[in-house]
Amino acid sequence: MTSPVSLTITARPGERVHHQQREIQSIMRSTARLPGRVLVTGAGGFAARPLLARLAEVVDPDAGHVALFGPSGADAPAALPACFRPEACDLVGPGAIDAIVGSARPDIILHLAAQSSVSASLTGGAARTWDVNLFGTRQLAEAVTRHVPAATLLFASTVEVYGLAFRSGRLDETAATAPQNPYARSKRAAEDLLLDTLPASTRLIITRMTNHSGPGQAAQFVLPSFARQIAQIEAGLAEPVLHVGNLDAERDFLHVEDVIEAELALLMAAPGLAHRTYNIASGAPLPIRTLLDRMLAQARTQIEIRIDPARLRPSDIPRVDVDPGRLMAETGWRPAVSLDQLVTDILADQRRQTGSQTGSSTGH
Question: pTM, whole model, 2 decimals?
Fold first, then answer.
């Protein structure tokens, strides 16, 4: 096995464009303030880490915000925004979330905690998926009802709840749902639980999120999986073969930064929103092959693509076409980070991780 080589890479014109796009996107971020005390569940998750940093820019730093991590707190980052107090919490443990909500008295709750892997829910993890996604949500709902019935609660659901309904074409929030895996079914059940059990005084926002990715996402998800394999091949740690599943499936992808801006836009508009359920998506599905091609265009070596039957899901929906019109009309939100920037960020992150594992620089 060859050793990784340290390279110095000069930015190509396209990379400079990506940098300019990122500057434009940062300028477009809302500067409005988010009043009140915030509590975030699942704070150790991929999407929560950049969310906490973004929230720190718009909340009162002295309000006493809380970030909930796993039962042992092992998923808490070394550095947390100073305005957030970390708390370890077993969401399904008796009384754990009730005690924290009762003590913190949050005005705004972002409920992100979940078992969010479809593949894990299909391969022996169904019981855990239901425990966290439904029972954990039930315990949170009971705590909100008991202690902060007038709070705003944003629940992170998924477009997976539509399932087989996507066979009829483009879907908005009024479409029937037909979830096809334990993850999606548990999320749909949690939506119903919140709608049925929270008091009318609670401002509930359900966000059905499309596929979103970015730096820090686990390699079990499709785009980081591609990027991890490419980074390992470039470093000489794997043969030049990239193993893939169904590349013809059409999916709607967003950068995690765009998802965060959508969540903030909904929270800012919470008192005046006309609905409770919102799709967060670009509205422009693409074949997964297209995103892989964009990533391979940045690879530093020739790579063979090989279909791996183990990566093919029998329940794959050919095309996921989500209508985000309600979100756009009521908040003015639009996605701002390009797909080219998305794949660039993911690949850079996996190259960095691979370089750290080998103790060598990969030039980034």
Answer: 0.88
